């Protein structure tokens, strides 16, 4: 299941609740009961958020989007609502439908409860990029096996639970829900118009090669619709809202979409098993789906730990180069400008001397939080060690880069550093004492521009680095753009994208 237009954030109460439950042994009955209780409590809390949103339509995030995006989103939601109502005309539910719904709903609830912690962590990790929800394993199968009334009820149950941990604006979350509903309704239409309907009614697999081929093509068509409808509706909304039409920005990476395809493959397995004998679904698919989700999260955690700086959560210097160089290359191909920011904390040694290394770590964490809050999902942000940070701003003009850099500089200067302790005197044997919020942290920022300064990754870094040192020499706490002639730097990095070519030339 593809998810929406904006950043996914984990709230503080959600983080504490999640940590408390995840401390339980995974297989313990009490841990499962606590997780169910937490999920129920979170869904119950949504009443206030939903009512507050409905009472204040003028404050909806929707109205902050461009008019074309608003028109597209509202038009899609209205069209899907009419489609859903039309699908109810003449609809009837059989005992088989109710039994299938009960089993699939039970599997879905079990899956939602068991994966609540890893799913919330996945959403937190993916907050700056595409997030693929694996609940398509159940919703895709339900779209084929169940009438629209029941499959849409299952979708509503899933989306309410996911909304409790997604913490997105309700208006955009409703749009992505409408996109998922369009997928389900389209799959149901394909099922009714092809041999899948008769196959499901009989509960037997086709025997003749021709029938097998027709059923396979129909099932493939249903999967393609499920994938393409969500991708198309959401990517158009993103393009209209964000004003850009680059593939990765609209639909995510190939790896993201491979995850979606894999979930649909599991949904096909759910469909086949459910058609033969609905009792096979919980026996087979729950274990596979849970294992897949947990393995994906474990792999994501391992990759994140290897690429992220432990103190700030930003990319390390080594992990920064490849995505930054790739963004630069993409902008060059599309003839778009790029900006590179180098940042250095002013007088950082004084923070370390006065508040200790733990205090210095707190300062680094506060600055990294400012960088996250003041950069976009497409920007690449990293820490170069010590007190230096870097930001690659794709598709960014000189004026935009200056505005972003100045916004970061001002935000750092206004930041209140909390949690610091200092020694009562200069002797390390004295007990530390807590101090109140401290202001005074500032940052010097250098700006390098492509193609103005260079289209080479290493030279662009050198331009930003030289500008940063010029900002420090000019009095610190300021933004300086690199001059046209950039002096040589002993620490110019080599673009990761050019290393293979350099090796061949050697």
Automatic annotation (TrEMBL):
Keyword Oxidoreductase: no
A single GO molecular function term of this UniProt record: diguanylate cyclase activity
GO-annotated cellular components: plasma membrane
Family matches, as SMART domains: GGDEF (SM00267)
UniProt superkingdom: Bacteria
Entry-linked PROSITE patterns: GGDEF
GO biological process, one term: cell adhesion involved in single-species biofilm formation
Transmembrane segments: 65-85, 97-113, 136-158, 170-192, 212-240, 260-290
Keyword annotations from UniProtKB, A to Z: Membrane, Transmembrane, Transmembrane helix
Classification via Pfam families: GGDEF
Domain GGDEF: 336-484
Region (Disordered): 472-506
NCBIfam families assigned: GGDEF
The protein's name in its UniProt record: Conserved putative membrane protein
Highest classification ranks of the organism: Bacteria, Bacillati, Actinomycetota, Actinomycetes, Pseudonocardiales
